[in-house]
Design a protein that fits this description.
The complex is a heterodimer of chains A (341) and B (249).
Chain A: E1 9-15, E2 20-22, H1 42-51, E3 60-63, E4 68-73, E5 77-82, E6 85-90, E7 93-95, E8 99-103, E9 108-116, E10 120-124, E11 127-128, E12 158-162, E13 172-175, E14 185-190, H2 199-207, E15 210-216, E16 220-224, E17 239-240, E18 245-247, E19 255-257, E20 264-265, E21 269-273, H3 275-283, E22 289-294, H4 297-312, E23 316-318, H5 327-333
Chain B: E1 2-3, E2 15-18, E3 23-27, H1 34-49, E4 55-60, E5 64-69, H2 76-89, E6 90-92, E7 98-105, H3 114-121, H4 125-134, E8 137-142, E9 149-152, E10 167-170, E11 174-178, E12 181-185, E13 189-191, E14 194-198, E15 219-225, H5 227-238, E16 245-248
Parallel strand pairs in B: 7-15
Antiparallel strand pairs in B: 1-6, 2-3, 3-5, 4-5, 7-16, 8-9, 8-15, 9-12, 10-13, 11-12, 11-14
Classes of the chains: A alpha+beta (341), B alpha+beta (249).
C-alpha cells in the first residue's frame, strides 16, 4: 500500500502479527456468508475514535500484543490510543496507555504489549485513503476481505490520511477507567441450543472455572475447563451463528465465536456472551480464569444501555501533568498546551 | 410468496430461540426439508419487504431464520409479536424460480477426491458424474464463506458421510459432497467433505455488478465440462464474465 509522497501518511515502521484495520464491521452480507469482522473490543475502538473526533465506528488500527511502531510522513497526525493497558512510548519516552497526541513528522510512536489486554486501537483524526470492500475497511484475513489488500498490516505499509477538517483534538491522557473492566465473570444468555445439554451440564458450564486457551484468535476463543457432554448428540443442521455464540463441538470443549466467526455452523450453541462482555473476554490474555453467569435478555439489554451511555457522555481527556511524566518531557512534546505557559 | 386469505392454521408455530440479546432464531424445524426451508424463505422475504425498525440482518438457513437486531431500538417481545403475525399470514413461498446451470469439471486433475468417494459409495467414476449431473439441486442456504452455496437434492447413491478428520484445504470453486449434501465453495478452506469437481464460475466477485450470483431458494444443475473448457471458462470468469447460465423455471 503506497500513499502519494505529499499526502499525510501513517508509516508502519514495524508491525507484529495480527495488526489489522477495523471499522464497525461489514454488515448486511451475512446472508451471503460474509463475516462482519470489526473490532474485538468495540468499546475501546469507539473510545479511541471519539477521542480524536471521529465517528465511533470509523476505521482504526487494531493492534495485537505483537505491537506496532509508526511515524508520520508529510504532515503531523492527531492520533489516539485506547484499549487494554499497552506500553506506549513517543521517541523513547513513556506515555500513559490511553492517550491523545500529535504525532509529528518523523516522531516514532511505539506500542508494545503492557500490563493487561490483548488489543488496543490506534485511531487517526480523519479518514484513511484505503479502498473499501462491500462498504467497509474491516479486515477478515481468512477470506481476504478489507484491510490493505485483504491482509493484516505489515512493516512498510503507508496509510494515506485525509484530514477531517474538524478542530485538532487536545492532547492528553484519556480518562476512561471503564475501559479496564474485570474479566472474572462473563455474562451469557443461555441458548439457542442449551436443550442439547442436561441440567447438570448447564450447571457445569456456568460453574467452570474456564481458562482462556493460548489457542485463540480473532475468530474464536478456546476454553479449557470441564468437558461438557451432549444429551442429544453434537451434530445439528447448520444454522446462523451470532456474535459471541458458544458452540460445543464433539470433544466437549466450548469455543466462543468472536468477530471473525463464520456466519453459519453445525454444532450446538449452549449460550451466547452478551454484547458488552464479549469485548471484555476479547481482552483476556491466555491463562485468564473466569466463570460464566446466566442473565436474562432484560439484564443483557440493560448492560448494553449502560455501555451506550458511557460513550454518549463523551471522552474525557486531561492534560498530562507531573504525576504522569516529567515536565521537561512534556514541554518538549507540546503535550500540555494551555496548562503551562 | 403469496399471501393467503385463509390463515395457515395447519402449520405449526415456529420456535423462538434467543442467540443472545441481539439475535433471534425463528426455527421452523430441525431437519433439512424443502417444506421447512420454504417457510424460512417466506418469512425472510416478508421481513425484507417490510423490515421492522431496529432489525439489521436476516440470515436464512436450512431450517431457521436468524434475525439480527438492535435491542436498544426494538424490544424482543415486540419483534416476536411482529414475526408471529407475519408467519401466520404467509402461506406459501415460490421464490423467483431461478435455475442456474453451473459448469463443473470432473477431471481427475481437479476432482481430487472423486475416486475415494466412488470407492466408499461403491460406484464407478462415470456413475458418480452421471448421478451428480442428472439431479436438480435446491439452494437451501448460503454461508460459512462468501458466496458458498449449500445444496439439497443429492441423489441417494451419492449421499456420503463427512470425513472423520478434515482433509487439507480445497481449491476455490470446489464442488464437494458430504453429510448427504453438496456445496460449492468459492474460498480455499480445509474441509471434512469430498472434492468431486470444480467450477470455473466465481460465486463471489467483488468487482462484478452482481457480487454474489446465487441466493437461497434458487435451483441449480451441474453441466460436465472437460479440462480444456474449464481453463477457458476460468479465464473468462477471471475477467468478470458470468459463465454460469441463468434461466427461469
Amino acid at each position: 500500500m503506497t500513499a502519494p509522497a505529499t499526502e499525510a501518511t501513517l508509516r508502519i515502521l514495524s508491525a507484529g502479527p495480527g495488526v489489522t484495520l477495523q471499522d464497525a464491521g461489514r454488515h448486511g452480507y451475512l446472508r451471503f456468508g460474509v463475516t462482519a469482522a470489526g473490532p474485538m473490543d468495540s468499546l475501546a475502538h469507539a473510545a479511541a475514535n471519539l477521542a480524536v473526533g471521529n465517528q465511533p465506528g470509523a476505521t482504526a488500527l487494531e493492534v495485537s500484543v505483537g505491537g506496532i511502531e509508526v511515524t508520520a510522513e508529510a504532515a503531523s497526525l492527531h492520533i489516539a490510543v485506547a484499549g487494554g493497558e499497552f506500553a506506549l512510548s513517543l521517541d523513547g519516552r513513556p506515555l500513559p496507555p490511553a492517550v491523545v497526541l500529535r504525532l509529528d513528522e518523523g516522531a516514532v510512536l511505539k506500542i508494545r504489549a503492557g500490563a493487561k489486554g490483548s488489543w488496543c486501537y490506534l485511531a487517526i483524526a480523519g479518514q484513511l485513503n484505503v479502498p473499501k470492500v462491500l462498504g467497509s475497511h474491516a479486515t477478515h484475513t481468512r477470506t481476504g476481505f478489507g484491510g490493505v489488500d485483504g491482509r493484516a498490516i505489515v512493516t512498510g505499509d503507508r496509510l494515506g490520511i485525509e484530514p477531517s477538517g474538524s478542530p485538532a483534538p487536545s492532547p492528553g491522557a484519556i480518562v476512561a477507567p471503564w475501559l479496564d473492566r474485570p474479566i472474572s465473570t462473563i455474562r451469557v444468555v443461555l441458548g439457542p441450543q442449551h436443550d442439547y445439554f442436561a441440567d447438570d451440564q448447564i450447571a457445569a458450564f456456568l460453574a467452570g472455572p474456564w481458562t482462556a486457551s493460548a489457542k485463540g484468535d480473532r475468530m474464536a476463543c478456546f476454553l479449557d475447563g470441564p468437558r461438557l457432554t451432549h444429551a442429544r448428540g453434537y451434530n445439528i443442521v447448520s444454522d446462523g451463528i451470532a456474535l459471541g455464540a458458544i458452540q460445543v463441538p464433539g470433544d466437549g470443549r466450548p469455543i466462543v465465536l468472536m468477530a471473525d466467526r463464520q456466519s453459519t455452523g453445525g454444532y450446538p450453541k449452549i449460550a451466547t456472551v452478551i454484547g458488552p462482555d464479549l469485548s471484555r473476554l476479547a481482552q483476556a490474555r491466555p491463562g485468564t480464569i473466569f466463570r460464566f453467569a446466566a442473565v436474562s435478555i432484560g439484564q443483557a439489554v440493560a448492560a448494553r444501555r449502560e455501555e451506550a451511555a458511557l460513550l454518549a457522555r463523551g471522552i474525557v481527556v486531561e492534560p498530562l501533568v507531573r504525576t504522569h511524566l516529567s515536565s521537561e518531557f512534556l514541554l518538549g512534546l507540546n503535550l500540555i498546551d494551555g496548562v503551562v505557559g | 410468496m403469496t399471501l393467503s386469505s385463509d390463515p395457515a392454521s395447519a402449520l405449526p408455530e415456529p420456535g423462538f430461540l434467543d442467540a443472545g440479546e441481539a439475535a433471534l432464531v425463528v426455527q421452523f424445524g430441525e431437519t433439512v426439508d424443502p417444506g421447512i426451508n420454504d417457510r424460512v424463505l417466506a418469512l425472510d422475504a416478508a421481513l425484507r419487504a417490510d423490515p421492522p425498525a431496529g432489525t439489521r440482518e436476516f440470515v436464512p438457513t436450512y431450517r431457521s431464520l436468524m434475525i439480527h437486531y438492535d435491542p436498544l431500538q426494538i424490544d424482543r417481545e415486540a419483534l416476536v409479536a411482529r414475526v408471529r403475525l407475519m408467519t401466520a399470514n404467509v402461506a406459501e413461498w415460490r421464490g423467483e424460480g431461478t435455475i442456474w446451470t453451473l459448469p463443473c469439471c470432473y477431471d481427475p486433475a481437479l476432482a481430487e477426491d472423486l475416486d475415494e468417494a466412488a470407492q466408499i459409495l461403491k460406484l464407478a467414476r462415470d456413475e458418480m458424474v452421471g448421478l451428480h449431473t442428472k439431479a436438480t439441486y435446491r439452494v437451501y442456504m448460503c454461508g460459512f464463506t462468501p458466496g458458498q452455496t449449500y445444496l439439497g437434492g443429492v441423489p441417494e447413491p451419492l449421499k456420503i458421510s463427512r470425513r472423520p478428520t478434515p482433509r487439507p484445504p480445497h481449491p476455490a470453486g470446489a464442488v464437494l459432497i458430504g453429510g448427504g449434501l453438496c456445496t460449492v465453495a468459492p474460498f480455499v478452506m480445509p474441509t471434512g467433505w469430498y472434492v468431486i469437481g470444480q467450477t470455473p464460475e466465481r460465486l463471489y466477485a467483488a468487482e462484478r455488478k452482481d457480487a454474489f450470483l446465487i441466493q437461497a431458494g434458487d435451483l441449480l444443475r451441474f453441466e460436465p465440462i472437460d479440462l480444456v473448457t474449464f481453463r477457458d471458462l476460468e479465464q473468462r470468469a477471471a475477467s468478470g464474465e458470468v459463465v454460469a447460465r441463468k434461466s427461469a423455471a
